[in-house]
Amino acid sequence: MMLENGKSMPSVDAWLREAKADVSAADCGMYLTHNGVVRATPKAEVRGVETDGVAPGHKVGGMVFGFDAEKVQAAIEATRAMPGIGYVRVWLASGELAVGDDIMLVLIGGDIRPHVVDALQALVGTIKNECVSEVEREA
Q1: Could you give the dihedral angle defined by the CA atoms of residues 115, 102, 54 and 128, in that order, rounded to the nearest 10 degrees?
Q2: Count of domains observed in the chain
């Protein structure tokens, strides 16, 4: 399965064209994307959890983002093995990011909506909770 990295997020339109040209396309009745971006509201505030980042009530000016490629690849493979899933592709940024910058792009193709929605939620959750490092910087 596909993991990509870089400063500039790839074109969603290009990814969809490539997915629809893939051998898996005949079995995919739906494609779903997730585009995560850096927000100004701290994680501690929106999730109601304690973090070592920016405190609630303050603003995020940016973050340092990194990831463990082996863990992400394992998460992609586990997602591809889910019922009805035929296509999985992930792009992740790395390094210093500003508010509004793209963090990740995920594309999942599968047979029916419940399978694709569940797979997207599982993969993004695994990436965010187990595979990445996000250190917020105060504005």
Answers
A1: 30
A2: 1
User: What interhelical angle do 113-126 and 69-80 show, nearest 10?
Assistant: 160
Q: Quick one: which of 110, 139, 124, 138 has its CA closest to 32?
A: 110
pLDDT digits (tens, 9 = 90+) for 81-133: 999 999 999 999 999 999 999 999 999 999 999 999 999 999 999 999 999 99
Measure the CA–CA gap between 91 and 7, rounded to whole angstroms: 10
Q: How far apart are CA 32 and CA 122, in angstroms?
A: 13
Residue 110 near residue 36 (C-beta atoms within 8 A): no
Q: What is the pTM of this model?
A: 0.94
Q: Is residue 119 within 8 Å of 80, Cβ to Cβ?
A: no
Instruction: Determine the Cα–Cα distance for residues 66 and 83; give it in Å rounded to an integer.
Output: 30
CATH number of the domain to which 95 belongs: 3.90.1170.40
Q: How far apart are CA 52 and CA 136, in angstroms?
A: 8
